[in-house]
Every structure is written in C-alpha cells, then in structure tokens.
Amino acid sequence: MQPQRFLYNMKKEIQFSLVYRDMWQSSGKYVPRKDQLARIAPVIIDMGCFDRVETNGGASEQVNLLYGENPNQAVRTFCKPFNEAGIKTHMLDRGLNALRMNPVPADVRQLMYKVKHAQGTDITRIFCGLNDPRNIIPSIKWAKEAGMTAQATMCITYSKVHTAEYYINLAEQLIEGGAQEICLKDMAGIGRPHMLGVIVAAIKEKHPDIIIQYHGHCGPGFSVASMLEVAKAGGDVLDVAMEPLSWGKVHPDVITIQAMLKDAGFRVKDINMKAYMEARSLTQEFIDDFLGYWIDPKNSLMTSLLVGCGLPGGMMGSLMADLKGMHAAINANLKKKGEKELSEDELLVQLFDEVQRIWPMLGTPCLVTPFSQYVKNAALMNLFSRSMGEKDFTRMDPAMWGMILGKSGKLPGKLAPEIIELAKEKGFEFYTDDPQKLYPNVLPQYIKEMKELGWDRGQDDEELFEFAMHDKQYREYKSGLAKEQFNQDLVERMRKAGKPIPENLLPKQETSEDELAAVAMALHLASKPTVAPAATLPIIHSTAWNHKHYTL
Q1: pLDDT of residue 397
Q2: Which residue, among 354, 356, 361, 357, has the nearest Cα to 415 in the 3D structure?
Q3: Residue 55: helix, strand or coil by DSSP?
C-alpha cells in the first residue's frame, strides 16, 4: 500500500550543497587543478549559502592522475578551507567499485574511508548502480569506523521495477544497515516529482531524524519540480550548481532554487551575489584555461528525449562520440545491402528506442556508472549487428556479461529468457553469492612493491591507497607519462581551436609516439589487475579505464 504523503512545516530550513566536482564531470572529462581549487574555495565560502560542498569522489581522483596531477594533494587543498569554515564536505563513492569502474577488494575499500577522512572529507555518498544493499552496507560500516558520516544512496530511475514501494523498502534496509543519511541520486533526472515526494515523506514519517539529500540532474527537465516536492515532503539538503556549469545536463542553479523555496515559505540562506559573480568568473577562467577543451557543447542543452530511455545526461557527450563513430559503419553496411542510409538524428532515435527496449531484458539496472554504459553499448552494438544481418546480443562485451551473470550484484529485475538461454549457450554460470568474495585483498602486495620501488606510502597511507585503487594510472603518473600524454592532447586540441600554445606546454624534446607507446606498454605489463581466486569464474571487468566513462 502506498504511504500517505504529508507536508512539513513550510518554515523548515532547506540547506544547499554545491556539487562543484559533479558540475565538472557532468560537463566534461577533467576537474580543476589543485591551484585552481585553492583559489575558488574561499569565494564559494563567501557566497554564504552553502552548508555542504561536494569536493571529490566519482572519477575526479582518477582524472587527476590522467593529467599528471596528484589527487591526494587536490583533495586536501580543496577540503581544508571548508573544514575551517564549518562547511561539510562530501564525496561520491561507487560501493563495490569505490572510485573506479570495476570491483575493488575489501581491504582497499576500507582503507579509502580512513584516507578520505584524514584528507578532510566529512561525508561519503555510497551508491550501487544495482541498488544492492550487499554492495553498500559494508561501506557504511567502514565509513563510520573511519569517522565519516555514511550517506547511503538510492539510485533513482523510473520503471515497472523501481516503484515508490521499492525505494521505501530499500531505504529501510539501508537505515537498518547503519546509514546515517539517505541520498536520492537522480542521476538521469527522470525521477517523477510526485513519486519522489512519496518516497521522502514515507522515510521521514518513520525516521524523522534521518537527513535526506536530493541530487537531481536537469537532463529532461523534471529536477526543479522534483526539488520542490522533495522539500515539501521533508527533504533536508538539495544539490545545486552555479553558472557557467548549471542547467543543461548538469544541475539547477542555486539562484533559481533559492528563490523558488523562499517563495514557498521555506527558510533558505541568502546568496552573496558579489561572491557568486566572482565564482562564476573564476569557473569560466578555468574553462578557458584548459578544462573547456574537454566539455561537449551538447551538455549545456536539456532534452526531453532522455525521458523515455532514462540515460543520464552526464554520458551524452561520450554517447554522441560513440554514435558518430558507429554512424559511418552502419550506413556503409546499409548501403551494401541497398537499404536507405540513416541520418545521425534517425540513428540517435533508434538508439534511444533500443535502450528502452532492451533495458528490462537485461534486468533493469539503474542507468548509472557503469551500468548505463553497458546497456547503451549493448543497444548500439545491436543496431550495428542488425546492419550486418546478425542476431541481437551477439556482440556483448565481458563487462556486460559480468553484470548479467551477477558478478557486480543482484539485478533489480528479471532477465529475459533469451538472455538466460544465450548465457547457457556460451557456457556461462550465474553467480548469486556476495560479489565482494570474488575480489581478494591486495594491499600486502602493493605495500611490498612500493617498498621495492622506493615509493613513499604517503601521509595517512594516501599514496598506497591511490596505487591500489588506480594501478595503471598511478604508474603512468609516477613515470611522467600521464603528464606528457595530457600535454600532447591539450596542445592538439588548442591547435584545432586556433589558440596560441603556451610555451610551458611545448616539450623541450619531442617524444615520439613510438616511445610513448613503449613506455605505456611497459607500465601496463607491470600493472596488477585484480583477479579472482582460482576456484571462481574469471573476473570479467577490465582494469583499464575507458576515458569515455567519466560519468556519475
């Protein structure tokens, strides 16, 4: 039975959290450097309207390594001023996957919370794209032991499986598992406002002291209405953005949300507009400096096309890049068969329709990192297979099969019979036990190697953590290869844009592509992918990070 909704006292205070980290990664690939974060933090504080700031997590620390910067220094630098000002900092973590795209051993996950709390992060937002409590509850325990606030997260989507009752029951499991706060993570912005209000009201009715934070992307356009409904139902904190990275596929701007709630009778903090404009100017400066070269212009646009397929807005840039590459190949196949070629828009609509069709067939995972990529990739490969005259689902990659077989957790919905039959034909076995058991502890081997290499484990073991979490990227960072590759990529993008190349970006001695490839191969061979015990099925998630998968 659906719980009765009720409205809270309209004099209640609603707090705002600036999702500065997410603003960047929903827009592009990279995040600001340590020196840029140090400049903008005091200005964000001066705005006077934020009780929380998202400072790190997701893919932000990995992309620091990718452009040759130390993520630990960036996190400490950004968190420190907020800690001193009494503004709570929070991070995003992917539960079983922690801060990467593939599962992480338990000892590395546990170390993460000790390191992040020592670096100044107060709250961790723990999510699982399958909403499997087994992937979240261990992190709740480890986070609390490390002194952090454990904010358990429910990934919001809209399907026959993901009803209000589903989420209300999930919240009960997470709170029983020790969650101190609940986050509604509406990563695609397709949560319907009324349903979100029902969910929040039900949680608050039974657990009035549990803080509820709502995170909703603009995407298809529901998020402003959703924020009002969440506030009316008893929500406590809303995630917001600010120009020039608000709206589009990102988050609503704090100015609009503050004005809306103030008009509705809620207590909200005033915005120091002088500081807002200064922060706006600084953010634009960071875009002009280098970050904007990786921001897809389409991410500044909202689209109702996302309502049906439910794909998160943050992955639209990579989706369009994939689509452009596949477009020519599909049309070449159609031309060979004497069939009408497709425009890019026609192919895009076909892709959205295919995602909508196969999503329930694949167990209805929440379309969030990494499962949004898996479903999108399966849909795109189906379109390609058809153009080749092949059957659907003949080109699914190992990562997709890992999700289907239960290696990442329990799927929310049922698999279609044809998917189960295809798995049997391939000789695959389904896994139903705790997925963490597939990934044995690894810290001792990393400690041993760091000692052999003469590498410092870092303050509070933060360098050890980074090495164990992002093996390949950390090696490339330490060797200098990451910085060199990043600079070459940046120079090429600046040349294409017709911009002058700063002297400091021009290498004193050119490194050939062959030399870079040789170094990269040596580092790759030295990296240690996480492997399962011999008694289990092989781990099928790649340890290599796909640069397109930087979404939330």
Answers
A1: 86
A2: 361
A3: strand
Burial of residue 514, with CB atoms counted within 10 A of its CB: 0-12 exposed, 13-18 middle, 19 or more buried: exposed
How far the first Cα of the chain sits from its last, in Å, is: 33
Query: Is residue 309 very low, low, confident or very high in pLDDT (cuts 50, 70, 90)?
Result: confident
Report the DSSP beta bridge partners of residue 461: none
Q: Distance (Å, rounded) from C-alpha 485 to C-alpha 396? A: 30
Distance CA 392, CA 373 (A): 17
Round to whole Å and give the CA distance between 297 and 552: 18
**Angstrom distances, CA of residue 64 to CA of 75, 81, 96, 462:** 10, 20, 21, 14
pLDDT tens profile 79-100? 999 999 999 999 999 999 999 9
pLDDT confidence of residue 520: 60
Angle in degrees, 0-180, between the axes of helices 462-469 and 106-118, rounded to the nearest 10: 140
How many Å separate Cα 62 from the centre of its chain? Answer: 12
What sign results for the dihedral spanned by CA atoms 238, 241, 247, 253?
Answer: positive
Axis-axis angle for helices 316-336, 344-358 (nearest 10): 110
Distance CA(276)–CA(47), nearest Å, equals 6
Longest dimension (CA), the chain: 70
pLDDT in tens, 369-409: 889 889 999 999 999 999 999 999 988 888 889 999 999 99
According to DSSP, the β-strands at 15-18 and 237-240 are parallel
Please tell me the total number of residues recorded for the chain in this structure: 552
Q: Is the pTM of this model over 0.85?
A: yes
Secondary structure of 238-272 in the HEC alphabet?
EEEECCCCECCCCECEHHHHHHHHHHCCCECCCCC
Name 517's bridge partners.
none
What is the number of H-type helices and E-type strands within the chain?
Answer: 22, 8
202 in helix, strand or coil? helix
- Strand, coil or helix: 527: coil
Phi and psi at residue 125, to the nearest 5°: -100, 105
